[in-house]
Amino acid sequence: MPGSDSTVPLFPAYLRYLVRHNSRRRMMVQLFTVLSAESLNPEHPLHDEFTARMDDIWENYSQYPWLIPPQLGSWKSSMRPVVRKAMEIMDGVQLW
Predict the structure, then answer these.
(1) What does the DSSP assignment read for the chain?
(2) Is 6 inside any structural domain?
(3) Among 29, 49, 66, 89, who pairs with 11 as Cys (CB 3.0-4.6 Å)?
C-alpha cells in the first residue's frame, strides 16, 4: 500500500499518504464531494455506489495484513468502526 512499508503495511501511514495524495488533487476531491451529495437522491445513477462505499472500503482494506497499534486490538475484531470513522472524518474535512 502506498505510504507504507511493503512487507508490513501500516494503516496510520497509509491514511497519512491518502490525505497527502488527496490534497494534491483538489478538483478530483471537489468532484467526489459533489457526486457524493448528489447521490443522496435514490434516482441518481451513483446512489448504490455511494451507499455501499463504506462496505466496499472495508472489503478492500481487509485484503491487506495491516500492522496496527496493539491497543486497537486485531484488524478483524475491532478495526471496522475505526476505519469507518477515519473515512467519515476525511470526507468531512474534504468539505472544507
Answers:
(1) -TTS-SSS-BHHHHHHHHHHHHHT-HHHHHHHHHHHHHTTSTTSTTHHHHHTHHHHHHHHHTTS--B--GGG--HHHHHHHHHHHHHHHHHHHHH-
(2) no
(3) 66
